[in-house]
Amino acid sequence: MSDKPVLLIPRKLAADVLDRARATYNVILNDDDHVFDRDELIAACQNADAVLPCHSEHFNADVIAALPDRLKIIANHSVGVDHVDLAAAKARGIVVTNTPDVLSDATAEIAILCMLGAARRGSEGDRMVREGRWNFWSPAFMVGRQVTGRRFGVLGMGRVGQVTADRARGFGMEVHYHNRSRLSPDKEKGAIFHDSVESLLTVSDVLSLHCPTTPDTIGLINARTLDMLPDRAILVNTARGALVDEDALVAALQSGRLFAAGLDVFRTEPGGNPELAKLDNVFMLPHIGSATFETRDAMGFRALDNLDAFFDGGTPGDRLV
Ligand code: DGY
């Protein structure tokens, strides 16, 4: 073996990303692309100087405590890092990076797909045609909600939230948002700032979630907050399932208080929520917000840029701790 650093890549990445990784690192792969359980992950890390995981690999405090001293950097292939205990990594002197920016366009596309799929009854209609049950048409048939001109609420106006707001403007929607801090006018682009979540909820005909999961945001969308939305609103979630109390969401959808939901993320992944799956007014996707060829390449290259900077003795551009 050469003296290149050893890099563990636990999931199957794009071929050109792997080619670039091999040029600089001795790469350990997970040939069948299964999700490592805790023990497998710890074992696979034992001979590695670095790891390039996805959000499917859980580096909680217990796993981080069992990592070898030689492992110096966790270069995530994701913008979200709720699968890594940052404090535990920091305490062990392990650098953690993510891949911001490069997935904003792809994720915004999926947010808009979720909004339209929910508003216009996309999965209900698709299943009807596909299953040979489409035997009727009338002006009263499959009527949905038009989003054009309605109010689009963005909870978390970071990079993905801002691009999604731009796309919603294309539908003539009026953008409202809540964020920890107000954006500068050039980023705000006329969007209306709300200084509380509650204030945003009361005006959001469509509410799109784009905030990270933190102790403050886990379960933020619950029976109380869903009830603050305008009647027959639409919820879109392309961020993380943990933001939403799914039992409360099922109840709001069943009662018709909420018109529909468009969801790319769930509390249980993979798998989703069987109670949500029973409802016609839910449009669902399997966490594919960033799953385009272009974006997967860009995420992989960005993670490698972070690794290269670290092993060249510099500070990775996307260093979190
Ligand atoms: C992210 O980057 O956080 C996406 O959810 C995919 O992991």
What features would you describe in this structure?
With 321 residues, the chain is α/β, with parallel strands linked by helices. Helix content is 35%, strand content 14%. It is built from 13 helices and twelve strands. The strands form two sheets. A seven-stranded parallel sheet has the order 8-7-6-9-10-11-12, sandwiched between helices. Strands 2-1-3-4-5 form a five-stranded parallel sheet. The longest helix is centred in the last third of the chain and has 19 residues. The model has no long low-confidence stretch (mean pLDDT 98). (2R)-2,3-dihydroxypropanoic acid binds next to loops.
Estimated structural class: alpha/beta
Percentage beta strand: 5-15%
The ligands found in this model are:
(2R)-2,3-dihydroxypropanoic acid
Rg estimate, integer Å? 21 Å
Strand order, main sheet: write it out: 8-7-6-9-10-11-12
Helical content class = 25-40%
Question: How many strands appear in the DSSP assignment?
Answer: 12
In quaternary terms, these chains amount to single chain
What is the succession of H and E elements? Answer: EHEHEHEHEHHEHEHEHEHEHEHEH
Compute the average pLDDT.
98
Largest sheet: number of strands, sense, barrel closure:
7 strands, parallel
State the shape: globular
List low-pLDDT spans. Answer: none
So how many helices? 13
Quote the distance from N terminus to C terminus.
Answer: 30 Å
